[in-house]
Structure formats: C-alpha cells, structure tokens
Specification:
alpha/beta, Rossmann fold, seven-stranded mixed beta sheet, globular
Length: 319
C-alpha cells in the first residue's frame, strides 16, 4: 500500500480546474456557475477557454444554487462553485429544496473549506458543512484528500445523475496514492496495520499517514490508515471490517467535533454493536483561534505529532 516517498503535488483546486477543462472540451453541456469566486476557485483559465460555459452571478450564493438547479433541470451538468463557509450556510435552504429534494444533478463545490481561510477568522471557517449537509437527504458529501482523489471525484461527478458536494482546501497537497481505486462511498485503505485504525478525510490524510509512519518507526505500532473521502454515504462495510478486528479506531477531521466524520462513524459502530475504543480528533466547540491553516492545525493537535500522541493514548487505554 502506502510506503513510497511522498511527493508534493498541486492544490486540489488547481486539479479541479484542470480536470473540468478537460471534460468541457468534450462536453459542451458542462457549465460552471460561480459567485465572484473564479479567482479563488482557480477557474480563470476555465473562463478564458470556455467563456460560454461559465456563469457569474456575483456575491449571491442563494442565487448561485437556484440558478444551478434550474440549469441542471434542463439537462446541463452543473458545477456550482463558492467558498464553503457561505455556500453551505447562506444558501442551505436552496441546497436542500432546489438541489437535493428536487434531485437536480448539481455538483456543489465548497472551496477554501475547513480553516483554509484561517487568517480571516471564524466567519470564514467552514466547520459546519458535514453536519449540515449530512442531514439532507439525497446528497453525497465528499472531501478529496489529494490530486488523485480530486481528479477522480470531478470526473465521476461530471457523470453523476444525483447531487454531490465536493469540499476543497487551498494549499498544495502531497501525491499520496493512485494504487487504490476511488469510488464515491468507498473508503481507501492506504496503509494496513493490526494495532490501530486511523480514519480520516480530506487534507488531514497526509498528517495521519505521517503519524502512522512515526508510530511504526518509534514503537513498532502498525496502524491502518483510511481515506474516508466520502462522509456520506459512509463506507459501513469497511468500518465493520475495521471494528471486527477489535483494534481502537481514531477519526481525524478538519471540522467541528460535532456532526462530522467522527460522529458518523461512532453512531454506526455503536448501533452495530461494536465496543472498540474510539476517539474523535476535530476542532472543539469553542471560538476557533485565528491564524494560518497550519497554525490552527498545530494549535488543536491536528498534525503528525498530535495524531501520534492521541493514538498512543488510545492504545494505552485499550490495554
């Protein structure tokens, strides 16, 4: 699985834009709708190449979603792009009614998600989106971890017949693995071990893999690391396999501790009758500190050192 030296790639948003351009060359029904976000969404090259396939609505997120739903209802394949903090809060009603409940195949793209806009403060953090969108029927919720997952997610979303939410951060991401296939709703096991399972989503996959390597090198602890890129629908088959081993399970996410990947996993495992030691690593319920994304990660222990320490504690408790 994941043993090779990790190389740096592009920001997932750059891969998103490049992949869309490749699809737009062949598919003239593909449209991108933006809310004054073509720059931050890395879509300037798309707009230059395909000006008739991009719709700009200005800073009007509710209109963005409503227009996208209307276009999708006519047979267009629509990607609606806006900062995640505003897309999934200001236009939540339109997402619910116009997209999900009306079953319009819009791909909602939340950019600069999590704490990517860290220095702009809590108003620009998106730590609620999993919680809000998981509660809406008929909506896939996915956070690709690297360029490979991003490329595959965009390709599959362009062929989808039902609504999807894709979540992207801003910074360049490591190239992690292309050996394990990407399918919505199916987690990717990138490292296998017998002592503890680390289940994560989005950009925190990389520090989770680093933590697993440190655990192995320093203490001989073998950790399984899973990219649970799709938060909804959850890969309950994979979770069942992990829990059946009896090993502790640690979830790691760039989201509030409430309503995200961790609580989704905990709810399933408890109701399925498992009693594994379990811990959620996420942003606590408090006024989030202000700073760069990595500074916020470091503050809350969402880094290699922090994940390693919590994993060690969980294993000690499980003895």
């Amino acid at each position: 699985m994941m043993n090779k030296e990790i190389k740096m790639g592009k920001a997932n948003l750059e891969t998103f834009s490049e992949t869309l351009q490749g699809i737009a060359e062949e598919n003239k029904s593909l449209l991108v709708v933006t809310s004054d976000s073509r720059g931050s969404g890395k879509l300037v090259p798309f707009a230059q190449r395909f000006p008739k396939q991009l719709v700009e609505v200005g800073i009007a997120e509710q209109n963005l979603v409503g227009i996208s739903a209307g276009l999708a209802s006519t047979g267009k394949q629509v990607f609606a792009v806006s900062p995640a903090c505003f897309l999934t809060a200001r236009s939540l009603e339109q997402i619910k009614n116009d997209v999900a409940y009306s079953d319009n195949p819009v791909t909602l793209v939340g950019i600069s998600a999590g704490v990517s806009y860290g220095a702009l403060g809590s108003t620009h953090h998106s730590l609620h989106d999993y919680a809000a969108l998981r509660a809406i029927h008929n909506l896939v919720v996915c956070a690709p971890a690297d360029n490979f997952e991003t490329k595959e997610a965009v390709r599959q979303a362009a062929e989808a017949t039902h609504p999807i939410y894709l979540r992207f951060g801003k910074r360049p991401m490591p190239v992690l693995s292309e050996e394990v296939p990407f399918v919505f709703g199916k987690g990717r096991v990138l490292r296998e071990g017998k002592d503890i399972a680390i289940v994560t989503t989005g950009e925190l996959l990389h520090p989770a893999l680093e933590a697993a390597a440190r655990l192995k090198e320093s203490q001989g602890i073998a950790a399984t690391v899973v990219s649970m890129h799709t938060v909804k629908p959850l890969d309950t088959d994979l979770l069942t396999k992990l829990a059946a081993t009896g090993m502790p399970i640690l979830t790691v996410e760039e989201h509030s501790v409430y309503g995200g990947l961790g609580e989704a996993c905990a709810s399933f495992l408890l109701q399925a009758g498992f009693s594994n030691r379990f811990q959620i690593m996420a942003i606590p319920d408090e006024y989030t500190v202000t700073g760069a994304q990595q500074e916020i990660f470091d503050h809350y222990g969402l880094n290699e050192e922090g994940i390693t320490a919590v994993a060690e504690q969980l294993l000690e408790i499980a003895k």
